[in-house]
Every structure is written in structure tokens, then in C-alpha cells.
Amino acid sequence: MAENNNSRLNSIEDAMVFLDNAIEFQELMVRYSCAIREVRTKLEVLNDDLRIRKGRSPIESISYRIKKPASIIKKMKKRGYDFSIPAIRQNLNDIAGIRVVCSFIDDIYDVADMLAYQDDIKVIEIKDYIKNPKENGYRSYHMIVEIPVFFSDHKEPLRVEVQIRTIAMDFWASLEHQLKYKQEIKNQEVIVAKLKDCANVIAHVDSQMQDIRKELEENSTEKEGTFLDKFEKISFGSII
Ligand code: 0O2
Fold it and tell me: What is the domain-level CATH number for residue 25?
């Protein structure tokens, strides 16, 4: 009987520890989602500012995600880390992730520079998979940035992974990601080679689009518009 009571007590204690950890984990995820909001706002401000001042938005879209608990556990296990909140915080840089899709390759570097230049942003790491594509053809510009987030009773530096790529790179990466998770691929080498071919074609298209844009910018002059044409450009719909 005493043994039973003890084991019940133990299991309640275990449950309490489990709940404490679960709450702490949830709090950490909420803090990362706040860090995403901070970086996202910075990117949106840059885009709006460039649209107003230069008449062109370099960013096509911004998406974001908090890494799934299962992916966090998988990554921690794969790298041989203990599964604890401090270990997750210390060792994983991509719990908060933002993906920025730009129109042209130059835009990627402009956006990255403008973000890195901000004095509350600390760049922790850069992986330039555009200049150095991965063996499979993957191209993207990755930055790990740290940003201070102000909570009700403290300030906390939090890391966010920012992936910046063109529309074409994003198209390739999304499809390759989907295909990777399809089971039982019979002729894997052929598929891998085809995907790499596609990545090269896409990189060529990106570089040609960039050249076309440069040529257009160098060889065009502002069209003489009517008084009303100038007013056509003014719209607040997408700002608010
Ligand atoms: P998910 O589902 O996006 O979270 P590090 O985080 O720096 O310690 P890691 O994870 O190797 O080490 O970093 P890296 O190389 O910068 O890659 C991180 C993310 O880039 C991946 O996250 C993918 O989102 C993306 N990525 C990297 N390589 C590839 C690739 O070959 N194909 C595709 N489609 N995406 C890629 P996760 O954690 O793998 O997944």
C-alpha cells in the first residue's frame, strides 16, 4: 500500500515536472514568435520605404514559421544535445524562421545589407548558398540574426533565421522539399540529377532576369506623364 502511495506521489511529481517543462517550452515558443514579429516588421518597413522612395518593392513576399516540436526534438537528437530548454535555446538558431522572397538576386543582397546595418540587429552567421550552392543545387541566402525583444519585465536577445531567395529559388526549394518527403523513390540518382539540372536552369534564368533589369534601368528614361498620370501612382491601399 505504502509502495502504491509512493508511486502515485512520484507520478504526480513527474506530471508536475512535465507540465512545468511544457509551460516553459510554450513560453519559449511565444518569445520566438515575438522575435519573428520584430524582424518581420523591420523587413516590411524597409520594403515600404523603398517603394515610396525608389518606386519599387524588392520583397515579393514574407512568410514565417516556428519550428515544429517534432523537428526540434529530431534536430536536438541528431546533434547529440540533451533535451532541455536551455540546450534548445543555446544550440538551435532556427526555431524562429522567416523566409523573404525577392524579385531579383541583387535585391537579396540589398535586403540582407539593410537588415544587417540596423543597430539593434546582430548578425551571428551567414551562409551564402547563392555564391556557394549546395551539392543538390539548393540556393538561398541564410542569415542568423539576434534581436533584443522587450517583454514586460525583461529584455531578451533572440535568434531568428532569415532565408532570403528569389521567386525561382523558392519555387525550386519548395518542390525539392516536397519530393524529399515522398517515400520509396526508386531511381533516386536520376531524380537528384534532374533536380540539380533544374536548379542550374533556374539560376541561369535568375541571372538573365537580373541582366534585363539592369539594361532596362540603364537605357530607360522616365516617361513624360500627364498631371493625372502622376496622381495615378498615389495609393494608400497597400500601406495600411
Ligand atoms: P525546416 O523544416 O525548414 O525547419 P544550422 O541551423 O545552421 O545549425 P542547418 O539546419 O544545416 O544548420 O542550416 P542550413 O544549412 O542553413 O539549413 C537550414 C534550413 O535551410 C533548412 O531547415 C531548410 O529550410 C533550408 N534548406 C537547407 N538545405 C536545403 C535543401 O537542400 N533543400 C531545401 N528544400 N531546403 C533546404 P530544416 O531544419 O532542414 O527544415
Answer: 3.30.460.10
CA distance 110 to 240: 24
pLDDT tens sequence across 91-138: 999 999 999 999 999 999 999 999 999 999 999 999 999 999 999 999
Average pLDDT value for the chain: 88
Whether residue 233 lies inside any domain: the answer is no
For the Cβ of 93 lying below 6 angstroms from any atom of ligand 1, the answer is yes
In a domain, 213, yes or no: no
Query: Which residues are CB-contacts of 3 (< 8 A; sequence separation ≥ 6)?
Result: none
Show the domain range for 39.
Answer: 2-166
User: Whole-model pTM?
Assistant: 0.87
In a domain, 218, yes or no: no
**Residue 124 Cβ < 6 Å to ligand 1:** no
Catalytic residue among 24, 60, 161, 222: 161
Distance from Cα 177 to the centre of ligand 1, integer Å: 10
Domain count of the fold of the chain: 1
